[in-house]
Each structure stands twice: as structure tokens, then as C-alpha cells.
Amino acid sequence: MRVAIVSESFLPQVNGVTNSLVRLLRHLADQGHDAMVVAPNPGPKTYAGFPVHSTPAFRLLPFYRSFRVGLPSRGIGRAIEEFKPDVVHLASPTVVGAAGLTAALRLGVPAVAVFQTDLAGFARQYGLRGTDPLIWAWLRHIHGRAALTLAPSTATMAELRDHGIPRVSLWGRGVDLDQFDPRHRSAELRRSFAPDGEVVIGYVGRLAADKRVHLLAELAGIPGTRLVIVGDGPAEPRLRKLLPDAVFCGLRTGEDLSRILASFDVFVHTGRNETYCQAVQEALAAGVPVVAAAAGGPLDLVRPDVNGLLFPPDEPAEMRRAVARLAGDSVARLRMGSNARDSVLGRGWTALCHQLFGYYQSVVEGADRAPVRVPPVTGPEAAASPVRVPPVAAPEDAASPVAAGAVSGSRGRGPAPTGGRWSPGRP
Question: Among 2-11, 173-182, 286-295, 404-413, which is the least confidently predicted range?
């Protein structure tokens, strides 16, 4: 299959969108498929052997140097047309993605829009109040013309439907079960963090307002604990002032991140606008119990008193209480840590990429297709796997998530779904 990927961000930016695309591109290469990427500059010329076409970009927030917004250009449509894709994958589409969708519709190629960023929540966190109606109108304009929208969590799927976005199905995120594993826990690293044997409380993520990292200050002074913060971003200077006793590790990746995350005793996440929250899933894979806000993606990942605890999103005192509870109960931490690893087994990237291919094939080939089987995917998206993948649902019958299957590397393009499902230009 030939897959054109159009994204609002890509390397060298490190975020959930980029991480998903990197995993997908490696899978495409391993399975013998063809791909191309369109993303804002700066970026690599190629990745996993596939070409990356850069589009102009500008810095939207002066204080947030790594946050860049791509600009639409004629080169986007030209690159997609020359590639002759079977399907267009729109990663968190807003501006560049809208241009990619226009190109797909003009070519009569189905587009799968992957919703990954809560733009309305992001805008509110940066003081852009009253913009929700405008943002959701634009998102309906984009997603309403895609063949299918994929939401990463059940909470996000419900929100999209509530805002009038049709043809929504569930596609979660995979986790690297080798990179994130309790075996990477390091006694030496723990001694460097907590020389007096304190309980290590950790956060991993961007240090930015949309993650509400200022709430980490609520954790200061919990007896017998040491707070370790991994990541960088515009909120770091303020956070250092609020938490002078915390350990700041900066941005870490690869083996460093594996060792750090597995060496935590409790993982805490402060965000409330997480469509999935990959950092929570990686902590669970590393065998670390999680404390997270009871909103968005973490609702699918954290099972209270099983693999972690949830707190009301707007009650930081409850977050502190939950962290203090785990910090003071080593038996509960060990039990939840063991359950944490078990709760994400089966969510590897191979299984999730096979599921995505089932969705691709469902929009490329339409309703007349043979049943396909997939490796089981644990969690909410595993409700009925293996299954027959139904045609892309119309708005009135799109209530159930679909677990879709693996496909071969066929290069043929079937007809786009029609007959009341989707056709180019039909919302």
C-alpha cells in the first residue's frame, strides 16, 4: 500500500504526534509498503528510507521556541499527486493537514484523519478564551470531509461525536514494551536522585502551560519523597523557582529515558487535556503506578487502586493526597506496579499498526472485503478482536469502536467507499 502522511509536526520536534509517526514509518518500511511524509520545516530529508517533503512554518508563540505552525503551499498537493497514494493519513490535521485533505479529495483518494491534539484545550491554557466555537467549526470542516476519523481514547471519541464530527472510530497508541520495562530500573540512578532513600516521584513530559506543570508545586514537601522532572519547555524557569529542591533532568530519550522512568516509584501527570497521554502508558509499561487527572486518555489507562490513582482534574490538593498515599504505602506501590506492567501488555506498536492498516483497508476497499484478523489489542479498543471490519460507519451507526486487522503489502487501490458512507466532498 502507498501511504501519504501529512502532519502538523515531525522530527526534530519530540511529541506524541511525532512519536506515533516514527513508529508507523518503521512499520511501513518493515512490511514493504511505500510512504512519504509532508511536514513543517525544519526536518530530515528522509526517514526510514521514505522522502520527507518540508513546508514553510513559523513560530506561533514567541516564548515557545519549539512550537511551529506549518503553512499550506502548492507543493503539498503536488507532492501528494506525484506520489499517487492509496490513502492519505492526516496526523492531527489543522493547517497543513487541511491542505493535504484538499489534495486527497481532488485526487479521489480517501483520507484517514487521526485526532491527536485537543486544540481547544490548548488554546484555553494559553489564555485564548472564547475560541472554542471557532476551533471546533474548523475541526468539523476538516474531519467531516475525511473518510474516517480515528480518536485515541474513548473520552476523546465521545467528545468528537458531541461536537458533530462523523465517522469516528477508536485507535489507541502502542508502547515499546522493550524500551519501557521494569528491568531497566537502576539502583545507582535512584541513589543519585534520592541519596537518603526517599520515594522517587517522577514526571515526564513537556514543561509547558498546556500540561499544567505548575501543579507539580503541590507535591513539594511530601515527607520522605524526592520529585524528579524530565523534559524541557517554556515553563521550566518558573518551575525551577517553584521547586528548588526538585531534580531537573532536561529532555531525555532512548536508554536514558528507559532507566529514569523505570527508576521512579510513582509517576504523576498533571495534564487535563490529554487525548491519550503516551507518557502515562510508558510509565505503566515500566511497572510504575500512575497518578493522573481523571480526564481524557488516562481514563482508559489508569484503573484506580489497580495500577494507579485518579484525581479530580481541578483539585490539585487531591493529586497531592493521592501521591502522598502511594508514597507512604510500599505494599500498595509494589502491587500497583506489578499490575501496571500487566495492564499494557498486548499494546505493542506492531499490533496497533496492524489495526491501523485495517482501517486504511476499510476506506480503500469499501464494504466488499473479506474478514481480517489482528493480534489482540488490550484495553477499550480490544472489545471484539478478531472481528470482521465493517464498512466505515455513517454518523448514525458509528457508535462502536472497530478493531481492525492486518493487511498485506498490496499496492492496488480499491474504490473509495460510497453509497451513503463517504465520497470525496461528502461530510
Answer: 404-413
